[in-house]
Amino acid sequence: MKLDHLAIFLAFLYLQCYVRADSSSEEDSSSDEDQNEALLVEDPEFDLLIFTQRWPITACYEWREKSPDHICGLPSAQNIWTIHGIWPTKLNTIGPSFCNKTAVFNVTELDPIEKQLEQFWINVEKNKPYDSLWRHEWLKHGTCAAAVMVQLNTEDKYFGQGLTWLQQHSMADVLGEGGIKPGQNYTVLEIRQVLIDRLQKNMAIECYHDKETKQQFLNEIRVCFNKNLELENCDGILFEDVFIDQPQGKIITNCNVNKPVFYPATVPLSRYEKTHMSPFDLHTKFLEEYKRQKAKENKNMKILVNIYKLIQLLKWSTM
Ligand SMILES: *[C@@H]1O[C@H](CO)[C@@H](O)[C@H](O)[C@H]1NC(C)=O
Ligand SMILES: *[C@@H]1O[C@H](CO)[C@@H](O)[C@H](O)[C@H]1NC(C)=O
Ligand SMILES: *[C@@H]1O[C@H](CO)[C@@H](O)[C@H](O)[C@H]1NC(C)=O
To answer: What is the DSSP letter of 124?
Structure first.
């Protein structure tokens, strides 16, 4: 009965598609993307090191907006910018990344500076493993720095350099001395002017765009260094940023320059907290969820019944 097989095969395909379409929406794309990238080994040559500092309050807000279960790791001291990473970068392109397939990350090597890293290179996304940020930064970016520069060819040196740069050019100090303090709105031009006045280099200013409130938050600032570990202009780096020509020169930013940028002093309530639920609401929500689940099961049942009918029909028609 060839057709029988065909029908079963079709039913199988159908179910596969159905199941796949159902589960694909919940994937965390970032880790997958890293695994794909990990298969490529790139030419490690690069032009600049992008030293990225983040405002942990905004990073925390962004993380908590993604899921009601998300919790943050924040530095114990207030008003400190933390390190995201040191990213070797070729001008006008992204990367290189994952330059050493055989490299491993060994957290023990960071023992001597671990206490500092826990504060200044903190893993804001606390639901992830303790050393996940360091592991990621080392394998994706550190391996490329290590392949080219003796000054950065061990975990100790790479992470130690980050700590040194943060001490020298912490955005808490740079912005603070320029009168830019948490808790207020600023324009991108104001922020940029302070950065240029203090460091005499062009840097990248990164915003987090909150889709719910349509507000933009100051999120990251990228400072560039050359291979002699000296400050350099970031012109020519490619990111999600755009280059906006202004009378004062190019601005490297993904922020909307015509709207205020909020520099939050405390973590804003996430959208889950804003829709605070009473026990009655929770009960209603539970019932809705239950009904939806039931409806889905019924739908699945109907599909199976239809497939069964199809098989019967095919059987009948071939008899
Ligand atoms: C890659 O990593 C391995 C293991 O740490 C190391 O022995 C090797 O020297 C590295 N290769 C390059 C090109 O950095
Ligand atoms: C990790 O690093 C520590 C300290 O340098 C070393 O003693 C240990 O052998 C390393 N482990 C691996 C698996 O390389
Ligand atoms: C910052 O700007 C946003 C958007 O215009 C506004 O909603 C918010 O109230 C402002 N915050 C402060 C502290 O001025």
So the answer is: S
| Residue of 262, 263, 266, 269 best suited for mutating to test ligand 3, as the one with most atoms within 8 Å of CB | 262
Residue nearest to atom 9 of ligand 3 (CA): 185
* Proximal ligand: closest to the CA of 154: 1
Can you tell me the distance from the alpha carbon of 204 to that of 195, in angstroms, rounded to the nearest whole number? Answer: 10
Return the ligand number nearest the Cα of 150. Answer: 1
- Cis, peptide link before residue 96, omega less than 30° from 0: yes
Gap between the Cα atoms of 1 and 315, Å rounded: 8
pLDDT tens by residue, 21-54: 333 333 333 444 444 454 556 689 999 999 999 9
Tokens of 190: 């104001």
Closest residue by Cα to atom 2, ligand 1, is: 103
Active-site residue, from 62, 65, 70, 84: 84
Tens of pLDDT, residue by residue over 136-171, are: 999 999 999 999 999 999 999 999 999 999 999 999
**By the 8 A CB rule, do 159 and 121 touch?**
yes
Quick one: which of 198, 222, 234, 218 has its CA closest to 86?
222
Q: Do 13 and 303 contact (CB within 8 A), yes or no?
A: no
pTM of the model: 0.78
